[in-house]
Design brief:
Length: 455
């Protein structure tokens, strides 16, 4: 017991000091343990992060392998579908030969096609055709851009035979689906951005042999379909993204410089791109950035594009082209965002409208060089009811022409899918309705010219 107040205070003081010491000890023990635990946890987190990174890298590798295998698989599927499509064309040819029908019925005897004398088209593997390859039978190309010089190609035996067949009115290498042989074109001279090649035959066209079909003239029309690179993956055109590898794009660029540039001397219309997008192609945009009106005073350009990449900034960058007359074909296939997304996979509807508005404004300028604008629309099951709105859309964006095109199977659809998509097939349950929609558009008066190869 404490006898005095001082003894009590001293004892209390000791208690307080001990309490403080204990508190300090507790604190240091607590901190130590905690810090250790944090260190341990930190190490664990580090390990887990490393493992996560490794797993992510492995995932990337697997994903790339998977993409490659998938692309290969789809590529093969496309090839098979395309071959089936080709076989059906051959069956058609066989039937028309057996029955003596088709374009060999003599009705074209009065006409000649000028394209084999003045036009070439270069395909991705370098095959050179005299006109759109899908209009020519048996893959009848006249030479190869990567393997031969221009002279070897332009007057090859195959080129001379092709010319002979269109000079004597036989058209034996031409497919019935050639849009120039469409009766509407022959009778009314339907013209889009290109020049109609079908002319009446004259006395001079009666040549005795294919050997007489040699020409010294250079091509007036050149179409580039030599790069499949594109920023979109439209289901009608491809199942997977396609782009040339950098090294191949450099080789293409060199061939464009070495073989194409000299060919452009007398060229009046250079078209691009039939199978990819000019503005997505490294080789083509690099080459186009060097074209000038001074070097090629006769030259005009015809550019078919999805227009997604031709922003005002890109147009500014390609300032060298502003002095060259340009005809634009812009593929749209829809009148609203929803359908656009379906038919132009990877495309942005708002950006399309912005870029179209930019072209419309550019065409109001005094120094405007865009002499023609055509909006394209491939008619299919999901958009045929929009054809009339599309004509209106064309007017709104100041187009000269709106072109409705027939859907083909480019190998991206199975037979069943194609049968459903291709609403213009007379056996399709919606065929009649689709034809009525199109007829209604054709019968109305429009400011814009309507072109079609369907009715
Ligand atoms: C292949 S694209 C190349 C140019 C550019 N990338 C574009 O889309 O305009 C040329 C044209 O072919 C059309 N097209 C694509 N797939 C088609 C198909 N299966 N049948 C018919 N035309 C098709 C496009 O709509 C476009 O007008
Ligand atoms: S008629 Fe058609 S397929 Fe034949 S050469 Fe002329 S454009 Fe080509
Ligand atoms: S934009 Fe043209 S080239 Fe590209 S995927 Fe579509 S149709 Fe094919």
């Amino acid at each position: 017991m404490y006898r005095t107040r001082e003894e009590l205070d001293a004892a209390w003081e000791m208690v307080e000091q001990r309490k403080q010491k204990l508190e300090e000890r507790r604190q240091s023990l607590y901190n130590g343990t905690f810090t250790n635990q944090i260190d341990l946890l930190g190490q664990k987190v580090g390990q887990l992060q490393q493992e996560k990174q490794l797993l992510e890298e492995r995932c990337d590798v697997l994903q790339r392998d998977n993409d490659r295998v998938y692309a290969g698989h789809r590529g093969l599927e496309e090839e098979i579908n395309f071959l089936k499509y080709r076989i059906s064309a051959l069956d058609g040819l066989h039937e028309s030969v057996v029955q003596g029908t088709g374009i060999h019925d003599g009705s074209l005897k009065k006409y000649k096609c000028m394209y084999p004398f003045e036009r070439i088209e270069i395909l991705p593997r370098g095959e050179v055709y005299t006109c759109c390859s899908s209009y020519v039978k048996h893959n009848y190309y006249i030479g190869n851009f990567y393997e031969q010089s221009f002279d070897e190609i332009w007057n090859s035996e195959r080129a001379l035979k092709m010319r002979y067949s269109v000079s004597n009115g036989n058209f034996e290498y031409c497919m019935e689906n050639c849009k120039w042989l469409h009766k509407d074109n022959i009778e009314n001279g339907t013209d889009t951005a290109s020049t109609n090649p079908i002319v009446l035959r004259t006395e001079q066209d009666n040549v005795d042999s294919w050997r007489e079909c040699y020409t010294e003239k250079m091509p007036r029309f050149i179409t580039l379909t030599c790069d499949e690179t594109c920023n979109l993956r439209c289901p009608t055109c491809r199942s997977t993204a396609k782009a040339l590898k950098k090294a191949d794009a450099e080789i293409l660029y060199e061939r464009l410089e070495d073989v194409l540039r000299p060919m452009l001397r007398d060229c009046e219309l250079l078209g691009a791109l039939g199978c990819g997008d000019l503005f997505a192609s490294y080789a083509l945009t690099k080459f186009y950035a060097t074209l000038t009106a001074e070097e090629f005073p006769k030259l005009k350009l015809y550019i078919i594009t999805n227009l997604q990449l031709l922003t005002p900034e890109k147009w500014e960058e390609l300032g060298n082209l502003h002095a060259i007359p340009i005809r634009f074909g812009v593929s749209v296939d829809a009148v609203n965002e929803e359908t656009y997304k379906l038919n132009r996979r990877g495309g942005d509807w708002k950006r399309l409208l912005e870029n179209l508005s930019f072209l419309r404004e550019w065409r109001k300028r005094e120094d405007n060089n865009i002499e023609f604008l055509c909006l394209h629309f491939v008619v299919q099951e999901n958009n045929f009811r929009q054809v009339e709105d599309f004509a209106r859309f064309g007017e709104e964006y100041g187009a000269d022409t709106v072109e409705f095109q027939r859907l083909g199977n480019w190998g991206t659809f199975s037979d069943e899918e194609f049968a459903w998509r291709n609403v213009l097939n007379p056996n399709h349950e919606l065929h009649e309705e689709a034809v009525t929609c199109l007829r209604n558009v054709m019968e109305k008066e429009w400011k814009v010219k309507i072109v079609q190869n369907i009715l």
